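Hi,

I'm pasting everything inline rather than attaching a file, because the server keeps stripping attachments. The sequence lines come first, and each chain or strand is labelled.
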Amino acid sequence: MSYKQFILVCGGTACESNKGIALFTALKNAVEAHGLVNDVQVVRTGCLGFCEKGPIVKILPQDTFYVEVKPEDAEAIVGEHIVKGRVVSRLLYDKNQSKTNVGIEGIDFYQKQFRIVLRNCGVIDPDKIDEYIARDGYKALEKVLFEMKPEEVTAEVLKSGVRGRGGAGFPTGKKWQFAAMQPAGQKYMVCNADEGDPGAYMDRSTLEGDPHSVLEAMAIAGYAIGANKGYVYIRAEYPLAIQRLETAIAQATEYGLLGDNILGSGFSFSIEIRLGAGAFVCGEETALLASIEGKRGMPTPRPPFPAVKGLWGRPTVINNVETLANIPVIILKGAEWFSKIGTHGSKGTKVFALTGKINNSGLIEVPMGTTLREIIFDIGGGIRGGKKFKAAQTGGPSGGIIPPQFLDVPIDYDNLAKIGSIMGSGGLIVMDEDDCIPDIAKFYLDFTVDESCGKCAPCRIGGRKLLNYLEKICKGTGTLQDIENMKDISEAMCRASLCGLGQTASNPITSSLRYFYEEYKEHIEEKKCRAKKCKNLLSYTILAAKCVGCTACARVCPVNAISGERKQPHVIDNAKCIKCGQCYDVCKFQAVTRA
Amino acid sequence: MANMLQLEINGIPVEVPAGTNILNAAKSVQVRIPTLCHHPDLPAWAACGICVVRQAGSPKLLRACCTEVTPGMKITTHDSDIVRVRRTVLELILANHPNDCLQCPRNNNCELQKLAADFGIREIPFPTDVPSIPVDNSTPSIVLNPEKCIKCGRCVQVCQGMQDVWALEFIGRGEKTRIAPAADVTLNESPCIKCGQCTAHCPVGAIYENDETRKVWDALRDPDKHCVVQIAPAVRVAIGEAFGKDPGTLMTGETYAGLRRLGFKAVFDTNYSADVTIMEEGSEFIERFTTNGTLPLITSCCPAWTDWMEKYAPDFIDNFSSAKSPQQMLGVLSKTYYAEKMGIDPAKIYMVSIMPCTAKKYEISRSENMFSSGHQDIDVVLTTRELARMFKSSGIDFLKLASEDADNILGSYTGAGTIFGVTGGVMEAALRTAYCLITGDAQPPAINFEMTRGMKGVKEAEIDIKGTKVKIAIAHQMGNVEQVLNSIREDRKAGRKPRYDFIEVMACRGGCIGGGGQPTGATDEVRKLRTAGIYSDDEKSKLRMSHLNPDVQKLYAEFLGKPLSEKAHHLLHNHYHSKKVYAK
Ligand SMILES: Cc1cc2nc3c(=O)[nH]c(=O)nc-3n(C[C@H](O)[C@H](O)[C@H](O)COP(=O)(O)O)c2cc1C
Ligand code: SF4
Ligand code: SF4
Ligand code: SF4
Ligand code: SF4
Ligand code: FES
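And the predicted assembly:
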């Protein structure tokens, strides 16, 4: 049986939670109702990336791309598009797209993207191994098992120049070499799918959309380093990804692509899933290993590195999901091909989760070296509401705040480090003029203080002190001395914390003090928040000229700070005002002002 | 010969064996890198961040306590940059600490206080906030004050790793991390065996002995009380440390003298009752060994060990020696034999014991057997640390005291009694006497049973008593015991004769010389010196076998009859019962 047409429904978490399942069912029902079950297949795929406009539906082979589709639209898609061949233009991204150009090539969001990691996401049904195999899946594994020696595999990966996508950017080939060099015996391969930065969902989406690419890579890595056992460490909060992984492991095992004596090669490799409880620090590799061993998820000093002494004291390679998803492609297309993509020190592509004040938020994959401007303005469609771009943050709570002057810097590991940020795992948050920098720094510190494991003194105590200072500054009670103290603490945390969490926790502060010092100073000296975010620094007044005396504000004020006769201008008693801003919101005459 | 590596520390060439950490490599060239969480007994926990140093060519700082040297390394341990980072870390720790040193049990003897002094901290630039967490004083032995805790992790590693008790753990995460009894019950409801090793390792005043000096001061002033005292073997080789003496300095006579000055009417020595213990326990062993009784016999002088066994290994209760510990024997004899001979009403006798041990505070009321004189046999136990404080607060110039002797009739001892203070000592003392009693010889061919000595966690040997083979095992440091018990369990399961006949167990590393109530700061170096002090006491003793102690012979002639007599059983033996690991 071969289908003539396919309806792809995005099964990423964002779309699924937006009536995606109902949509999927509705489409299936419509196909059935039209008697097309043998001709048209409805497929639930992984994340298509364009989450901002989800749920997304894509029709193959025409490549028509529908956005913001509701279950009610199912009949139109099947009845109109499939049966009558007429594009439903109201569901297109650009409603005026020409009838002949209805695919993603007409959407800026997909221009400039280059998909290696996400090659299969949104194209195949992640629950069907055959679809993965049909797109060259497990060919790389077959190739290494029958045509390459383990050291050749490692050499190829090293030559490709691929660096770890989990944050630190360590050359993956080198890591494999270290583990391979250890004396033979029990070794382990671990996939780090803990992904816990606020706003990041690259790894989860990859696993949801293309779990086999990661499993295949783990088996390849296992072969290269001499491990026969793998673990995927994933947070229990990602049920869809877990379910797809479970299905994928079962199918691959059934096909003889995992398990004993893979494809008759003599090489055995099995994979188990380990669930994490959702502590950010458990993404740190030594804490992750402790957690797999059933211990408290706390980092331990390195060296010894896991590649030498890891899980249960045995050599262990830990790789990030995205790192691994690159591997089969590197093996099949060759290191040479891969190393042509990207910049001198950073090869290949990077997946980002684009969020914040941007028109098109979503999951994107771009070659290393793409500039922030291209990402934010070309792919992301610019700042929401036509506001002014203020800053971008890469690397989540461990990253720096990047000012507009670096919009044209090609993004790669080394350049980001130079401007005080890090690549991190790929969260990219865009801020506009309504975002207050000390407030943003406070948001991140709040996160790290909450997520610190508490083991080492600099991070456990220093983080709290930094947060207290930021709170003071945002309240308007900070001093310039506080800033000096923050610098000292940041330095000590950065250099004396045990793990990456504490070592990088001060990055948002250090970078923003560097580029947005004025804004801190304004908060401290002028008691002013230019973004009007810090409510303690705001003062509310009623413009007598505009006030009609409707009493709406007085009625809504929770502390009775507003007085005035009906039809007479009202006044706010600033001594009583708690700056909740409710009067500001309720006044229909713009008589309440905020400064 | 270990593989040697060359490197440079502060420009000084260093050669150390591979596997050495930077901290120890620096020590070998007289460079002291400050530490706070690190303790030589324990694997590096790497929590404090005070020990950071710089390696040439790397912008990152390394932790000296847990980083092994590599060939050609160039390390800088001190410059303004490094010291500034350390200082800020220290200021952060102080900003999270009550800093009430004047009221602290570790005042003048605290690793954090010392660092603050060394760094010349004059103010803390950051606002301090200290979480308020209640004190746990539920056990008779130790007090936990989590507010002072700097989360160095030592006590957790000691309790879980060295001692295998798992009474302490970290609870909470991030800034809410705190040290607490496992499962957040009270310490007394937890599996805690009161060994006090946590108190001996805590760098600050967050876990310490339950101070009972007040009770002793009051008793000494009470005209109705006849205060008597005993000192345990291990006290004499450690108390000097509290006054600046080297570990291992024998201070027996000075301690007797000091106690007399405090006002004790009679000063006894636990070594005397150690000799009595050998008479009882040795006879018990010979009886079991020669009549096919339950073997192995396991020593029971250490109350932390008996508590552990009652909780974790009740299948060994029948193997326990029923003989009481020397402390308890002396207690009951003071309120019976001594009282009778001196014509003193035992109700008036107030018996204080000075012990290296916090568990002994628990032992004195652990069962009804501890009241066999008709009164509580021992009224109060002070640790070595508490006694040192009493001496200091009474104005006694301890180091200048002239040596004095113990009192009759519970004060004389043989060398066999004194070695009870070290691992292997009880076994050695028992073997000396058993050899003579079994063979009828006046003395074993070599009085020192070397195979019982040393710091190895489990020592095994086969002793040849004129053709009769006695197989022994000695374990110290609680966490080393399970493997010995497991090997016996294996034998039992296989229906074999157990592989050991006699097992000695002491809960503390090195035995009681490394006890939880000893002056703080014990490391293996210190333990070795204390051990040497004990053996020197043995060497200089005229009599070195318990059964030769004339006062012990007199005790049996005048009072008890013979070892294991009914009276001896009533007064000097006790029972054990299985207990829940968690009391709640
Ligand atoms: C606090 C902290 C959290 C981390 N979280 C993750 C994570 O969620 N996923 C991940 O792949 N790596 C994470 N890392 C990085 C890992 O420690 C490790 O470097 C990475 O998994 C190695 O894989 P790679 O070489 O493929 O990047 C984290 C590191 C730190 C310090
Ligand atoms: S830096 Fe923070 S998260 Fe990392 S070990 Fe230290 S306390 Fe834990
Ligand atoms: S006294 Fe011993 S058993 Fe109790 S908490 Fe301390 S180390 Fe653990
Ligand atoms: S109680 Fe003492 S030993 Fe235990 S973690 Fe706290 S400071 Fe360290
Ligand atoms: S070994 Fe000695 S000091 Fe330690 S608990 Fe046992 S009796 Fe006490
Ligand atoms: S002594 Fe090295 S980290 Fe504490």
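The two ends of chain B are 53 Å apart (CA to CA).

If the labels don't parse on your end, tell me and I'll reformat.
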